[in-house]
Amino acid sequence: LNLPLMSKCKLISGFKGIRNIVSRVNIIADPDIFDWVKSGELLLTTAYSFNKADKDYQKSIILNAKEQNLAGIGIKISPYLTNMSDEILAYAEELNFPIIEIDPSLPLSEILMEVMKQIYNKQTSLLERIEKAHEKFMEIMLDGKSMEDVLDVVYNNIKNPVALKMKHQDVAYELFQDIPENTTIDLKKDLKKFSDNSINFRSKKMYEDKVIISGKYVDRMAIPIILKEEVHGYIISWSINTPLGGFDLSIMESASTIISLFILQELNVKEVEINYRSEFFEDLISSDTKRKRKALDRAHFFNLAPNDYYVVEVMSFKFPNLDNEDDDFLFDYLRKHSNQVVSSIEETMKNFYLNGIVSTKLNGIQILLEFVNTNDYKKKLNDFNLNIYEAIKKRLDNVDLRIGVGRIYRGLDNANKSFSDALRTIRTCKELTNRTIITYEELGVFKILCQDSLTEELYDFYNTTLKPLVDYDEKKSTELVKTLNCYFECNGNLTKMSETLYTHYNTILYRINRIQEITGTNLNDSNDRLNLEIALK
Predict the structure, then answer these.
(1) Strand 437-439 to 400-405 pairing
(2) Could you tell me if 480 and 473 are in contact, meaning their C-beta atoms sit under 8 angstroms apart?
(3) What does residue 290 show for φ and ψ, rounded to 5 degrees?
(4) How far is CA 84 from CA 88, 96, 139, 275, 503, in A?
(5) Residue 95 in contact with residue 67, Cβ under 8 Å?
(6) Which residues, at least 6 apart from 106, have a Cβ–Cβ distance to it below 8 Å?
(7) Phi, psi torsion values for 203, nearest 5 degrees
(8) What is the pTM assigned to this prediction?
(9) In which element (H, E) is residue 108 found?
């Protein structure tokens, strides 16, 4: 309407549609053209068809145009009509659909040519702006700048508040400049609400919706940052200053791609660092003297002092709905998620001012922690483990995690001993307890029973004490082993055993006698009791 050739034209209805975007222009002589029109078109026509049709048919033309999301209709009323019917104008006003009265002396073809020229010039201008923004993005990458610099380019182009929210970062990078304080507060709340919805970080889709900011509905556009089939974050903008459209989408999508490259670069660097530390750890715990010496010579690269105290922890991952013996699946899973897990652990180490390294070799995850002295190290270690457990569970919510902690040893050259302790702890606790974090010191007598060197001796001990009872149960379908286990849990109290097993006292007494007969032991003898209890363990 601001074009010079439109100076004698005026908007006569549908004033609330004044901001409609015109993407194309079409001239119609026949109202049945609606099978060929496209969204965003401005239709130019004469009142000839309106003059010949009744009011219901005229209304159907306007309704059809509205439903097909046309920008509006320009009508040359004279010489076919004196004016448009008030009823028709009121109907268009009700639909917020613009009707422009065109000057009778103005050829429709001139309007078409001029508007198409404006659209072309605007599209050319937009393409130039997109190209300039793309050049800026390339400069940022080549100059080694940051993701925040990418967001600055987005903000300078779309002129609306914009934020970058990464999946595993509590803080978002926000550009909420030159807007009222109450609007900023609402934007921060909306950003937090969007970020807290974990579904958003799983769907890999762009979000275009309306939200209430400062009591008004505004458009919100959220573009996912996707890398390796995973959503790492979102670029989000709100139509506070100007409407959000195709240009803004193009800028945000370009920025999303650039940020994905930043993440890829960080992941690649992280992977190299993890591999380097993992190789060091493998050499450190190796039984090969040369490899171990090589690791000790390189310890200063990791700021590890040779005479400080060291603890090794081993992590075990279990999948409730899968066969946990599938080593290939476990390996692939850890390889895919190792960067996330390592980042969580290193972040927690930093928060607790702990030095050490994280290794992802050996088909699992191991942590080497350094302590200058042993003062209160147990409490610090316990708090650290509780924190990394929670942090990892947040990132890998479909996994059961266990942590086995070795003993503390002085000297980096003894790290292999702590690693062996941690391995025994994790293997033993899988069989004995549902606890998620367990230390070697908490194993009690199992510290002896889990020694690899005793395996043959332990089998022999078991065969000569408890195995006859196990065999009898299998052959006769009895529950003597269960009864024996209950005997130790109830400290030999037969009445309590009767209540626990829901079995008559005399039956319990009979079973105890049968246990003694089959095993050739006397439960009144302390040595025999000890032997049977250890055999059960």
Answers:
(1) parallel
(2) yes
(3) -65, -45
(4) 7, 16, 57, 78, 97
(5) no
(6) 5, 6, 8, 9, 76
(7) -85, -20
(8) 0.58
(9) helix 108-142
Angle at 365 between CA 284 and CA 369, to 5 degrees: 55
CA atoms of 22 and 6, how far apart (whole Å): 15
Q: The tokens 């079409």 sit on which residue?
A: 26
Cα gap 233→227, rounded to integer Å: 10
Structure tokens at 283: 């050499």
Exposed / middle / buried, residue 530 (Cβ in 10 Å: 0-12, 13-18, 19+): exposed
- Yes or no: say if 70 and 96 are a contact pair by the CB < 8 Å rule: no
Residues 6+ apart with CB under 8 A from 271: 339
DSSP string, 381-406: HHHHHHHHHHHHHHH-TT-EEEEEE-
pLDDT, average across residues 340-366: 87
Nearest by Cα to 268 from 227, 239, 229: 227
The region of weakest confidence among 6-15, 266-275, 369-378, 476-485 is 266-275
Question: Is-contact 221 248, C-beta < 8 A?
Answer: yes
CB 72 within 8 Å of CB 14? yes
Residue with tokens 């927690």: 348
210 near 193, Cβ under 8 Å? no
**Structure token pair of residue 259:** 């940020």
What is the spatial distance between Cα 446 and Cα 454, in angstroms, rounded to a whole number?
12
What is the dihedral sign for C-alpha 515, 518, 519, 525? positive
Q: What residue type is assigned to position 371 of the chain?
A: F
Q: Across the chain, what does the average pLDDT equal?
A: 87
Q: Could you give the CA distance from residue 168 to residue 462 in angstroms, rounded to a whole number? A: 50
Q: Please report, as a single letter, which amino acid is at residue 85.
A: S
The tens digit of pLDDT for each residue in 117-131 reads 888 888 787 788 888
Q: How far out from the chain centre does Cα 359 lie?
A: 23
CB count within 10 Å of CB 207 equals: 14
Most confident of 58-62, 194-198, 485-489: 485-489
Instruction: Round to whole Å and give the CA distance between 304 and 490.
Output: 49
Q: Which residues pair with 237 in a beta bridge?
A: 162, 221
DSSP codes, 146-185: -HHHHHHHHHHHH-S-EEEEETT-SSPEEE--SS-HHHHH
